[in-house]
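Why Antitoxin? Reviewers of the renewal asked for a concrete example.
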Amino acid sequence: MYIYFMATINITDARSHLPELIEKAGSEPVFIERRGHRAAVLVSPERYEQMVEALEEVEDIAAFDAAMAEEGDNIPWVQVKADLGWA
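Here is what the prediction returned.
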């Protein structure tokens, strides 16, 4: 698990400090506010990929759980491979 300290900056200041914010985003998320509300977050490409992979993993687990909860007859793996021409 990662613990990040989150920087926050308003959009006006962000425009004039973008290079520094990109550098900071390499080590921590940077929230950009518009009219006092969070409007965007700047993260490193590596962290973004980690988050996408984690989300995909959670979605895969949810799909597996839903498939396992379906009612009906189970089809043996050997038969599935034969039906697909893999055996």
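Helices lie at 11-16, 18-25, 45-69, 77-84. This is the kind of structural detail the renewal will allow us to pursue systematically.
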